[in-house]
Design goal:
Chain lengths: 345, 492
C-alpha cells in the first residue's frame, strides 16, 4: 500500500517515526550512491527544522554533513535556481512535499537538478496528501530514489507525539540498502503461501557491526492500524479525506485572513497547511486563544525567526464549518482587543 | 483455508462509506486552487472493500497469531510477559490519546506531570542521576548512550577515544550501534562460565577506549560476577560503562546499575514495564545517566519550576546530543510504563525481580533433571537461561530449530533459537514472572515428550509444525524470488 501510494516499488516494515526515517534515508543514500564521494546531504529550504536536527543527531556522528539550501522568501519554497548552485555536488538531497510551511515545492525542477549533479533524491511526504498530489515516484524525469515520511496521519492517534511510525520506500534496485525489517511472501513445504521476514542479511542480528542500521524493534502495531485504515478508506476514501482537508484549510485561511492584521504569508499553492502573517507576535495571540481552549496553530517564531510574526495553521477533514467560524470570531476578538490596547497605550 | 489477501478481495467501486467524507473528490475541490501540475493522475492498489470485509479479514489474521494472550511464550531476551489490561486502558484515555504533541504546556500539565514522575521513578529504580525518555526503542537508546559517551570525551578534548568494547555474547544491536556512532568495535571473549574474560579486557583497554557496552545479567542468562572489577578496569583506563538494560526483570528492586558503577543505561520499557511489543513494537528505550553525562542527554526532557512542568530543550541543555524523534518519543509507551510502576509500587517491583528469577531457576532445574544439557551448568539463572541441543543435533540430526517447531504443535511458543551466537544449538528460555507453576510444569512435560520422540518418532519432529496456519516456510525462496510488494500483475 505504501509503495503504491508513494509511487515506488518496495517498502520496509516501518521505522520509528518520520523524523528518524529521514536520518535513516540519508544514511541509506550514502550507502546507495557509490559514485559520489561526498558525505554532504542538502535539505531543500523549507524542510522541517526538527527533521534536520534529528538527522544531525542520528547521522551526524557517522560523518554525514548537512546543509540547508536557500528559501525563496517570496514564495516560501526552495529556489530551484539556487538549489545546488556553486557548491560541490552532494551525495543526496532531501525534498519535503508539502514543505514545513505547507507550500507545494517545484519538485520536478528540484529532482532533475539533483539528478543532474549525481545526487540521490530523498522525498519526505505526507501519506494522505499522496491520494491527491503527484507521488515522488513521478517527480521529474526519473522520480525520487528514496521516499520516507511520518505515518501518523493514517489512523494513528496523536498521543503527544508517539508511538507513530516512519515509512520508507525505494526502487527495487536499492532494496538491499533499505534499513529495518522487510516482509516477503513465499511458500511452505506443502507449497502453501505464507509470509516471512526476508533479506535479513542486511540486519543487526546477522551482520552485527556491518548492518545497514541498528534498528530492531519498530512500530509494528501502528503499521497494522494504518493498514486497516487504508483498507477501510480505499483509494476513493483517502482521496476524499485529502480533498476535504485541502478544502477546509482553504476555508480556514479565507476566514482568518478576513480578520484585520492577518494575511497570508505566501501566494503559493498548499495542501492542508498554510502560513499566516500577523501584525504582532504569534505567541501572544496563541496564548490568548488558548485561554478560550482554541489551540490556534504553531508559532513559527521559535524555529523560523527569519519569518517574522508567522503562524502555521492546518485543518483536516475533522474540522467543521462551526469550528472554523469559532476560530475566526475568536481571532477577530483577540486581534481587536490587543490592537485597541496597543493603540490606547 | 488460505485467507485471500485484502487486495484479492477488492472489487471495483466497493467502499466503506461510513468512514470517509460523503462528498465526491470533485465536489470537495470545487473552487479550490490546487494546480493540475501537482495533481496525482495514477491509480494506487488500495483495496476497494466493505467495512465488514475489513473487520473479518483482520480479525481472522489476528487469530492466526501465536500470542502471549493465547499461549506460553518463553522467548528469551524478549520478555513476553503479561501486561496488565489496566495499563492499556488508562493510557488510552481520551485526554492522553488526543493530546497534540505541540500543544501548549498550559494545556498539558497532567501529561507532563506523568512524564516528570516517570523520569524520577526510573532514576530511583536504576540509581542514575538523570533520565531522558525520548529514545523510541532499545536500539535508539543504545545509540543515545554511545553518542553521549562520545560527546563526553569530545567535550573534554579527548578525541582519540573511539573504541567501544563489546562482549561477543552481546545482542547484535550493540556492535551495530557502536558503528552507527562512528566508533570502532572491539570484541571481548567470554570465559567458559559465561563471564567476560578479564585478562582480555585488561589487554583491550587503553587510551583509545571510549567505553564498554555490557548487559548484566548477560544474554547468556547469568549475572556478570566481576562487574565491580570490570567497572574499575574500564574507568581507570578513562572509559565509561554502558549498561544495556534491555531487560530489568531480573534485577528490579534488587540491584541498581548506578550502584554497579555504570555511567549510562538504556531501558527497554516495553519489555519490563508493560507494553505488548510482540509483532515488533512500539517500544521505548529511555536512557539514564550518571553525573558525568547529565549535560549530554537528548532533549526534550520534562522539568519543573514554580509555574509547573515544562519542556527542557536545547536552550536548557546546550551540550545535548540533540533530538532523536519528531517530538518526545513514544509517549503512549511511556504512559504505560508510568501506570505499571504506579500500580506495582516498590514492593510489587521487588516481587517482579524475585519471581522472574525464581521461575527461570525452577524451570532450569526441572529441565536439567529431565536430561537437558545446560550451557552453564554451574551457574544460577537470571531471568532466563540456555540449554544446548548440540548432542541431539550431532547424534540424531534434530536441531534446536526442529525442537522449536515441535513445541508449536504442543501449544508453546518456541524459546529464542540460535542466540546468543556463541552457544551451539541453543534455546534461550525466559519464562517471566507472570507464569504459574502449572504452566512451567506443562512446558517441561512437552519438552520431555519431544526428547522421547527424538528416538521413537524423529519424523514427527522434522515435519513439525503441522497444527499451525503454515508449515515451515521457504526462506531461501523468499530472499531469491523477492515478492515484497503487491502488484496488480500478481493476480495472474
Amino acid at each position: 500500500m505504501i509503495a503504491s501510494l508513494t509511487g515506488m516499488e518496495v517498502s520496509n516494515a516501518s521505522l520509528y517515526d518520520g523524523a528518524s526515517a529521514v536520518a535513516e534515508a540519508a544514511l541509506m543514500a550514502v550507502r546507495a550512491n557509490r559514485k559520489s564521494k561526498s558525505r554532504r546531504v542538502v535539505f531543500a529550504g523549507g524542510t522541517s527544522r526538527t527533521y534536520q536536527k534529528v538527522a544531525q543527531a542520528i547521522a551526524g556522528t557517522q560523518g554525514l554533513l548537512f546543509d540547508e539550501s536557500p528559501l525563496d522568501s517570496a514564495r516560501g519554497i526552495a529556489d530551484p535556481e539556487q538549489f545546488l548552485a556553486g557548491d560541490e555536488p552532494p551525495v543526496a538531497v532531501v525534498i519535503q512535499q508539502p514543505n514545513f510551511l505547507g507550500n507545494l515545492e517545484a519538485v520536478d525542477a528540484l529532482t532533475d537538478a539533483a539528478h543532474a549533479v549525481g545526487a540521490l533524491v530523498i522525498a519526505v511526504v505526507n501519506p494522505t496528501s499522496l491520494a491527491l498530489i503527484r507521488p515522488p515516484g513521478e517527480w521529474g524525469e526519473k522520480g525520487a530514489d528514496i521516499v520516507c515520511g511520518e505515518g501518523q496521519p493514517l489512523g494513528v492517534p496523536l498521543s503527544s507525539g508517539g508511538p507513530y511510525f516512519g515509512f520508507m520506500t525505494t526502487r527495487a534496485a536499492l532494496v538491499r540498502q533499505l534499513p529495518g525489517r522487510i516482509v516477503g511472501r513465499t511458500v511452505d513445504v506443502d507449497g502453501k503461501p505464507g509470509f516471512t521476514l526476508t533479506l535479513q542479511a542486511r540486519e543487526q542480528h546477522i551482520r552485527r557491526s556491518k548492518a545497514t542500521s541498528n534498528i530492531c524493534t519498530n512500530q509494528g502495531l501502528m503499521v497494522t492500524a494504518a493498514t486497516m485504515y487504508l483498507a477501510v478508506l480505499g483509494e476513493e476514501g483517502l482521496a476524499r479525506v485529502a480533498a476535504a482537508s485541502h478544502r477546509q484549510t482553504q476555508k480556514l485561511v479565507s476566514a482568518l485572513t478576513s480578520v484585520r492584521g492577518v494575511e497570508r504569508a505566501y501566494d503559493t499553492p498548499f495542501f492542508h497547511e498554510a502560513v499566516l502573517r500577523l501584525d504582532r507576535p504569534a505567541a501572544d495571540v496563541l496564548a490568548r486563544l488558548a485561554e478560550h481552549d482554541v489551540l490556534g496553530g504553531l508559532d513559527l517564531g521559535v524555529d523560523h525567526p527569519e519569518l517574522g510574526n508567522a503562524l502555521l495553521v492546518c485543518a483536516t477533514e475533522t474540522k467543521t464549518e462551526e469550528d472554523i467560524e469559532r476560530y475566526r470570531a475568536l481571532l477577530a476578538e483577540v486581534m481587536n482587543e490587543q490592537g485597541s490596547l496597543a493603540s490606547a497605550g | 483455508m488460505t485467507e485471500a489477501l485484502i487486495f484479492e478481495q477488492s472489487r471495483p467501486g466497493r467502499t466503506a462509506p461510513a468512514q470517509a467524507p460523503l462528498e465526491s473528490v470533485d465536489d470537495l475541490l470545487e473552487g479550490c486552487e490546487l494546480p493540475a501540475a501537482h495533481r496525482r493522475s495514477t491509480k494506487t492498489v488500495l483495496p476497494e472493500v466493505s467495512e465488514l470485509q475489513v473487520v473479518r479479514h483482520y480479525t481472522r489474521l489476528s487469530q492466526k497469531n501465536f500470542s502471549i494472550d493465547t499461549n506460553f511464550y518463553p522467548l528469551g531476551s524478549c520478555t513476553m510477559k503479561y501486561n496488565p489490561r489496566a495499563c492499556n486502558s488508562l493510557a488510552m484515555l481520551p485526554g492522553f490519546i488526543n493530546r497534540h504533541p505541540l500543544g501548549p504546556e498550559t494545556h498539558g500539565q497532567g501529561f507532563l506531570e506523568c512524564m516528570y514522575e516517570l523520569q524520577d521513578m526510573l532514576k530511583s529504580v536504576t540509581g542514575m542521576q538523570g533520565v531522558s525518555l525520548t529514545p523510541m526503542a532499545g536500539a535508539q537508546g543504545e545509540l543515545t548512550g554511545v553518542a553521549m559517551i562520545r560527546a563526553y570525551h569530545r567535550a573534554r578534548g579527548d578525541l582519540a577515544r573511539n573504541e567501544i568494547l563489546v562482549p561477543d555474547a552481546a545482542h547484535g544491536t550493540n556492535p551495530a550501534t557502536a558503528t552507527m556512532c562512528g566508533c570502532k568495535v572491539v570484541e571481548l571473549p567470554t570465559d567458559s562460565e559465561g563471564d567476560v574474560d578479564i585478562d582480555a579486557l585488561r589487554e583491550a583497554v587503553g587510551p583509545n577506549t571510549a567505553g564498554i557496552m555490557l548487559t548484566n545479567p548477560s544474554t547468556l542468562g547469568v549475572f556478570e560476577r566481576k562487574i565491580t572489577e570490570i567497572a574499575k578496569i574500564v574507568h581507570d583506563a578513562g572509559g565509561l560503562l554502558y549498561y544495556d538494560g534491555a531487560n530489568l526483570n531480573a534485577i528490579l528492586g534488587k540491584v541498581r546499575p548506578g550502584d554497579m558503577g555504570f555511567d549510562v543505561i538504556h531501558m527497554n520499557l516495553h519489555k519490563t514495564f508493560s507494553t505488548p511489543h510482540g509483532g515488533g513494537g512500539p517500544g521505548s528505550g529511555a536512557v539514564g545517566v550518571g553525573e558525568r553525562l547529565l549535560p549530554f542527554m537528548p532533549v526534550p526532557i520534562v522539568g519543573k519550576d514554580e509555574d509547573g512542568y515544562r519542556w527542557l530543550d536545547e536552550r536548557d541543555l546546550p551540550q545535548s546530543i540533540g533530538r532523536l524523534s519528531g517530538f518526545m518519543g513514544n509517549a503512549g509507551v511511556l504512559l504505560r510504563a508510568y501506570i505499571y510502576m504506579r500500580m506495582l509500587g516498590d514492593e510489587g517491583m521487588r516481587r517482579v525481580g524475585e519471581f522472574a528469577t525464581l521461575n527461570a531457576n525452577y524451570l532450569m532445574k526441572r529441565l536439567e533433571a529431565a536430561g537437558f544439557e545446560l550451557a552453564f551448568p554451574t551457574r544460577r539463572a537470571s531471568h532466563e537461561f540456555i540449554i544446548t541441543l548440540k548432542k541431539t543435533a550431532r547424534e540424531h540430526h534434530i536441531t534446536a530449530m526442529d525442537v522449536a517447531k515441535a513445541l508449536l504443535d504442543d501449544g508453546f511458543h518456541a524459546p529464542t533459537t540460535y542466540f546468543p551466537l556463541l552457544v551451539p544449538e541453543c534455546l534461550l528460555i525466559e519464562p517471566t514472572e507472570t507464569e504459574s507453576r502449572d504452566m512451567l510444569d506443562a512446558f517441561v512435560d512437552a519438552m520431555v515428550g519431544i526428547a522421547q520422540r527424538v528416538t521413537s518418532d524423529p519424523e514427527s519432529i522434522h515435519a513439525a509444525p503441522v497444527t499451525q496456519p503454515v508449515r515451515r516456510l521457504d526462506d531461501v525462496r523468499a530472499a531469491k524470488q523477492l515478492d515484497i510488494a503487491w502488484r496488480e500483475t500478481n493476480d495472474a
